[in-house]
Design a protein that fits this description.
Layout (H helix, E strand, L loop, with lengths): L2 E10 H15 L2 E4 L4 E6 L1 H4 L6 H7 L2 H6 L3 E8 L6 H4 L3 E3 L2 E4 L15 E4 L12 H10 L8 E4 L5 H9 L4 E5 L2 H13 L4 E5 L7 H4 L3 E5 L2 H13 L6 E8 L2 H12 L2 E9 L2 E8 L9 E2 L1
Helix pairs in contact: 6-7, 10-11
Length: 297
């Protein structure tokens, strides 16, 4: 069996989760190893399609505190083939409200008539969004706060987990987009495996047609800058959604900037979910009767 070139980023455990989520946009999914105070993140950029990414670019993408304190080391290594099996060590079933997210090698959820679960089978492949990351869990939790109705758009589909969950909950039509062809392929495969109707398009947020967002729900589990771009596009189209659920944003300063950006588009936060350093926000049209009742958890 051959070997795959990988990038190993070693850093303190306290910043590993933030660094991993940030670098996924640049290098693709990763495996995390190590115990105690140190973590090693293994990325496979050639498999993902990113190719060679210079160390300087990787360091620039990392959180500022890691660059200032020089606590990061980057190595180029060869990893024996078959590393994909490492997903099985980290991807286990997870229940989020009515949703039960599992890989295909795990059994279906237990049948409980008093609390029936919606089964989502997900093959992560080389796109992210297994339901394990706090930002994904936050969106899935918030998505269930209101009755499922009307159209839904998932901006940045990744593995397709959010769009699939929306379809299972009862949203229709469900559309999704991503500018990464690998993510589009993975999302289409996962949607078919779950037997749900999801339109997945290879496109950026700046290409969203007006009718896709107007009066519906938009999900955006992406970072702050793409959220800004998405809101600008919606504002330019004069196509304000009834509801915008965003994540991939750090609590604190980024959270405030995201709220201000949404407020300019006539959206206000109804509920926020905090986990670790991340925040997920449910933003509603100012005319929504729930818009004045903000909460957090």
């Amino acid at each position: 069996m051959g070997a795959d070139p990988a990038v190993r980023v070693s850093l303190p455990a306290s910043v590993a989760e933030t660094a991993g989520a940030t670098l996924m946009d640049l290098l693709g999914p990763f495996q995390e190893m190590g115990e105690g105070d140190q973590r090693h993140l293994l990325f496979y950029p050639f498999r993902y399609g990113a190719g060679y990414v210079p160390d300087e670019v990787i360091l620039t993408a990392l959180p500022p505190e890691t660059r200032v304190n020089r606590v990061v080391s980057i190595e180029r290594v060869l990893v024996p083939g078959g590393w994909e099996e490492g997903w099985k060590d980290h991807f286990h079933p997870v229940s989020i409200g009515r949703l039960y997210v599992r890989p295909p090698w795990e059994a279906e959820p237990p049948r409980d008539p008093a609390r029936p679960l919606l089964d989502i089978v997900l093959s992560p492949g080389m796109a992210f969004g297994t339901g394990l990351h706090p930002t994904t869990r936050g969106v899935l939790e918030l998505l269930q706060d209101a009755p499922a109705s009307g159209p839904l758009l998932d901006a940045g589909v990744g593995s397709g987990i959010l769009a699939i969950a929306a379809a299972k909950l009862g949203y229709a039509p469900v559309r999704a987009l991503d500018n990464d062809p690998l993510a589009v392929e993975a999302a289409r495969t996962n949607a078919a495996a779950n037997e749900v109707e999801v339109e997945v398009h290879l496109m950026g947020a700046d290409e969203i047609p007006r009718e896709w967002a107007e009066g519906g729900t938009v999900l955006a589990n992406i970072t702050l800058e793409p959220v800004r771009g998405l809101v600008r596009r919606l504002s330019a189209l004069a196509a304000a959604p009834v509801r915008l659920v965003v994540s991939g944003i750090l609590a604190g300063e980024q959270e405030l900037e995201a709220v201000l950006t949404a407020w300019e588009a006539g959206l206000v936060p109804v509920r926020r979910v905090y986990e670790a350093e991340w925040v997920s926000m449910d933003l509603r049209s100012a005319g929504d009767p729930n818009a004045g009742r903000a909460s957090s958890s």
